[in-house]
Amino acid sequence: MTIHLSRPQLSRLSRRRFLSTAAAAGVTTLSMPYLSRAADRPQITHGVQSGDVSMDGGVVWARADRPSQMLVEVATTESFKNARSLPPIAALPESDFTAKMLLENLPSGQDIFYRVKFRDLSHSAVESEAVVGRFRTAPGNKRDVSFVWGGDVAGQGWGINPDDGGMFTFATMKKHRPDFFLHSGDTIYADGPIKSEVKLPDNKVWKNLTVEEKAKVAETLDEFRAAHKYNFLDENVRAFNAEVPIFVQWDDHEVTNNWSASKELPAAYKERNIQLLAARAARAFHEMYPMRESIAEPGRVYRTINYGPHLDVFVLDERSYRGANGPNLEDKYGPSSYFIGPEQMRWLKQALLNSRATWKVIASDMPLSLIVYDDAANKKGSEAIAQGDGPARGRELEIAEILRFIKTAPIQNTVWLTADVHYAAAHYYDPNKAQFQDFEPFWEFVSGPLHAGTFGPNELDNTFGPEVRFIKAPGLDKQNLPPSAGMQFFGHVKIEGETGQMTVTLRDRADVALWSTTLDPKLG
């Protein structure tokens, strides 16, 4: 089914006519964005979100359907007793009517409730209905902390299928009531059109909810925006967003598959300038998520999120500063072997040194030792870090430097979390089994896809001595399985407040615990 959601069309529809049209298409109001009671009132089109939550605040986000002011009330009780009203924020066409606000001076370790409305800029007495969201600020003491992570949403043409429960993994994650969600990238597939139907191998048909802008690859700013908004049409995603704050990073599919400066765009693209596409994609990405913005470098993705005494999260950007994808075989560090780049390297080292948290989670949008080819069909070039067994080369030189620094500083209790490869795995890195050995043992955990095709397993590079302690993948003879096959994965992390122990569990969309391990923190 195709749903057209542009503002001019919505403004011409009465509520009664819209609801009757939606019902005829088999779509209930629960599966659509929130609607106001009167056609002339602003609408909150895609729910609310919160993100980048710390001990004293967090960012809230919403989108209107017209030029408006976002009005936010914040309280520590669900009744909104003694709520604080905050100054309005403009939502204008230049930002696609999105608005976000940093809520500050909040108590630590507290459930926070926020209520969002939009006031029409042309008619100041006309306001939307309110939508309520919630989050919990990071603790100031050593209480339990829980979060989920994963990546890869609406990939390979697997969109919102109401017959399969929509983006069901988000509903499963929500049941755990996590403190936050670490999105490891590929938040959208800008390069992946969503067709109305996909024929499955068993002759069944996967039926997508579709919108006009997702019928082709994204090239314009509005098309990149539409790819994000498409995911927000899913009722599971909107319900999750209203209750679980997001710590988001990006990878390649926010722009196009395996993009770098050397990207040769396929024929589907009329716009041939990869840097222009990346700039439009970056703007849409920042508009659509509740991220804290950098004054030093507007548009920066990498950042530290301090989440109480037990946890700091270091969100990396492995896309914006990389050298061109290529053979990845350099034996000396230079621009062609950049992956996170020198400035981000300096930031990461200093941020790790500054951390006083028990656990330092390094959020990497790509795995360290799984080989991801730039040209998968011919097994050529490197899209990720690894390129094959042997000493550290190319982009591995950065990882070697980071691991050496962590050992010599010394910095305790680092864990790497990632997604990207569309299957679940646990890797233990042992210097005694590595080609490069100047590091302390550590873990890397891989999850996803959250709602995309399932692939894998990938080849493993022995440079840093990874051991596969767990893997759940379809096998090379069963690639691109649909979400309905059940092989959708997310990771769940619990840190016990009293002991500081970290338990990592890999789960599927049915919430089956596939594998788990508990890590004891090193002291000192």
TrEMBL record:
InterPro entries: Metallo-depent_PP-like, PhoD-like_MPP, PhoD-like_sf, PhoD_N, Phospholipid_Metab_Enz, TAT_signal. Residues 148-505 form the PhoD-like phosphatase metallophosphatase domain. Residues 46-137 form the Phospholipase D N-terminal domain. SUPFAM superfamilies: Metallo-dependent phosphatases. It comes from the Bacteria. It holds the Pfam family PhoD. PANTHER family: PHOD-LIKE PHOSPHATASE METALLOPHOSPHATASE DOMAIN-CONTAINING PROTEIN, PHOSPHATASE, PUTATIVE (AFU_ORTHOLOGUE AFUA_6G08710)-RELATED. This is Alkaline phosphatase D family protein. The lineage of its organism: Bacteria, Pseudomonadati, Pseudomonadota, Alphaproteobacteria, Hyphomicrobiales.
